[in-house]
Structure formats: C-alpha cells, structure tokens
Write a structure and sequence with these properties.
The protein has 150 residues and is mainly β. The chain has three helices and eight strands; from the N terminus they run H-H-E-E-E-E-E-H-E-E-E. The protein is elongated and about 60 Å long.
Length: 150
C-alpha cells in the first residue's frame, strides 16, 4: 500500500499524497529570511541618571539555523504611551549585548513613573522577528524620605 492509498484508508484528506508528489518532484524548501530570534533575557539597572541594559544575542534565527551575519540592534524606550528609539548598534551572535544611556533631565526629575525598554534585532535587510521582553525601571527623581520621630 503506497502513502496515497494509506491516506484514503485512514479516511483523512489526502494531504500526504500531495506532499509526497511535491517532494518527489524536487520542490525546493522555502528560503530562510534569516530573522534573528527575539531577545528573551533583557535586564535593566538604573544607577542615578544612568540606565544600563544587558542581554544575550541569539545564536540562531527563527528557522533554528545558525545566524550567518551580524544583526543590527535597536533599543527602544517607552515613556507612558510614546515609544522612542534610543540607539542602534551591531553585535555578533552569541555575544552579550549591552546599552547604556544617560536619562535626560525631564526623565531624571519629577515624580516616579515607569519607563519600559525593549530590544529589537534586525537582519541585514532591516527585518525583525519582533521586540524582546519588556523590562521596566523608574524615571523621576529619588523619593523623598521623611522620617517622623515622636
């Protein structure tokens, strides 16, 4: 019994029959877009007015193949509802990525509020598989600590 007969015998649609014919006809596999896998371990540390981000660059692309070229890194900062690009760079696969920025005066003073950071990795054609995990830190000045002694 060939695979096509087996499909009909199982009362399923004969997709495997079509697949067998395509495979035997020598159809080539689809080309890889070579999209880097999104970063999954982004972390942030704020010290004074300085925010430092750390992450691990993926070694493989979304097709689970080893990355063949360097990728462009785009770091994004989200303030309330506005997303702003912070910077770009190039990193190799498997390396530890990092980014540091000094917060502007508007973000390093005032009441505490949440800042979110993301990292986006782009291939040489400028295409991305999406943003990394979000990491949060606080903007604004240091909190006022009032100790009341009675």
């Amino acid at each position: 019994m060939n695979s096509c007969e087996r499909c009909w015998w199982l009362r399923s649609r004969c997709y495997c029959c079509v697949a067998d014919r395509l495979r035997n006809a020598g159809c080539a596999a689809a080309a890889s877009l070579n999209l880097p896998q999104p970063v999954t371990d982004l972390s942030a540390i704020r010290t004074g007015n300085q925010v430092s981000l750390l992450w691990t660059m993926p070694k493989k692309n979304t097709d689970k193949l080893v990355m063949k070229s360097d990728v462009t890194v785009r770091v994004c900062r989200q303030e309330v509802w506005a997303m702003r690009g912070c910077g770009n760079g190039d990193d190799g696969s498997g390396a530890t990525g990092s980014y540091s920025e000094t917060l502007p005066a508007l973000l390093s003073t005032g009441p505490p509020r949440v800042l979110k950071y993301f990292v986006e990795l782009k291939n040489r054609n400028g295409r991305s598989a999406g943003l990394s995990n979000a990491v949060e830190t606080l903007a604004g000045g240091p909190p006022n600590l009032c100790w009341i002694h009675r």
